[in-house]
Amino acid sequence: MPSAARFRHPVQRLRSVRLLVRTLAATAWLFAFALPAYAQDERPFEWLAGAYSFSDELGGFVIDSVSGTGTRTDPIVIRETFVSASPATLVIRARRPIRFFDTGTFYANGILHMRILARNGSGHGWVEFEFELQEILHKASVFGDGLSFDQRSENRELISSDSFAEFSRDFEPYDKLLFRNGKIDPGRTGGFSFLITDFTPRSQFYLVQDPRVPST
Length: 216
Fold this sequence. Notes:
Layout: H1 4-41, E1 47-49, E2 52-55, E3 61-67, E4 76-82, E5 88-94, E6 111-120, E7 128-134, E8 147-148, E9 160-161, E10 164-170, E11 175-182, E12 189-198, E13 204-212
Parallel strand pairs: 4-6
Antiparallel strand pairs: 1-2, 2-5, 3-4, 5-13, 6-12, 7-11, 7-13, 8-12, 9-12, 10-11
């Protein structure tokens, strides 16, 4: 005759299964409520537009949206918000094969028409705004590296701002574009248009953005 212990064994197994089912159900219930909140807060690591991607991963500002293909008639438009009046670096990467001087929009061709819409969320008024290109992070781009704000052209029509009346370009010993004679008050957005060219295209480079407050 079977012992009492052998008759209890299936019951214990059934209780274990029921406990496991209840645990899994509770876990699924928690994830059902947690996942939507996570998805709402999730932001792209990088934004894709045309043959390139754009990232705010180095901090100091937040990209709100990116659109366009990078041509003169359809420039890359980046909407962003600055949380301070300190320099912040935009990371730009080629996400398609590089083919310099290609006239289409599929390849990364080293020619990027840009429009930056920078919202001042710093709480301080900006009286100047400077852009600097770098092939290597924290290292000034020089004239001979091919990366510049269209250094081979004297066409100034491609550079403009709705907030600053003047600009100047420097190509040596660094590539900088400075907008001045204007202002962007806290909470307002300023627009900047310019052309970036890279005659020796790289898969990654940087655009340092520097909003400036009045000196004291």
